[in-house]
Amino acid sequence: DTATIMAKGYILLVAATLISAVYSDCGGYGAGHDMCLPAADCGRVSGVCGPVSSAEIETILTVHNNYRNKVAMGGEGRGAPGPQQTGTNISEMKWNQELADIAQRWAEQLVNNHDCSYSLVDGSYENTCRKTEDYALVGQNMMSSGSSRPFTTTNWEYAINSWISEVSDVKGSDFSSPYGKVIGHYTQVVWAATNEIGCGRFANDELCAFKGWPSFYCITYFCNYGPPGNMMGSDPYSTTEKCSRYSSKYPALCSN
């Protein structure tokens, strides 16, 4: 009858409104994007929540750029075997807030894994879950750590240096891993063309079981990179190509 039809129409209207509200919270990114996932309620979380602080941003950029500058000056002696080759076209990294917002949203899911791989969309590859206005493809590094007590502070130096430590498994002459070890976190850190980064982290006061640590608390760190590193068929950096301009802060790095 008319009343039933009107009631059903009202229900459909409410459902459509709710769906619209959910996707408007995605910031226009669309279904399947990390920004469509629920944000942590930091008012109810005891731990490490909310966007990274200005002090954290400074640490993240400093650790990345200091190490990139070291490689660009031929100062990395580790490897399998080392030393690593001198990188002549490595860019200085700058902060990108959009990359950071997306990394933060994924970190708040407290998942011990990357968010998604790339996929072919309309003839082009993209990371559907973390693409931005500027980057269809976005690189990502992650690290998680456990403790017998809830985390209340961050340690970005520890997280980033854990990625850098993979250099011990990198053959200096050709950037390969002769032992088949994971080196992709390291190569992303030094990838020459990557000049923007944004990071997020999250920890709460609940016991974490995702790493098989039912008696431990966890913190997750994620950094998103643009343009992405680890592009198939390419080396992390050149040993001959020169910068057209150099950074005023990091003398061996290219200025964006």
UniProtKB/TrEMBL annotation:
UniProt KW DNA-binding keyword: no
SCP domain span: 55-233
Pfam families tied to this protein: CAP
Record carries keyword ATP-binding: no
Annotated signal peptide: 1-24
Domain of life: Eukaryota
GO cellular component: extracellular region
InterPro entries cross-referenced by the UniProt entry: Allrgn_V5/Tpx1_CS (IPR018244), CAP_dom (IPR014044), CAP_sf (IPR035940), CRISP-related (IPR001283), V5_allergen-like (IPR002413)
Keywords: Signal
PANTHER family: CYSTEINE-RICH SECRETORY PROTEIN-RELATED (PTHR10334)
Name of the protein this chain belongs to: Venom allergen 5-like
Organism of this sequence: Hirondellea gigas
Upper taxonomic lineage: Eukaryota, Metazoa, Ecdysozoa, Arthropoda, Crustacea
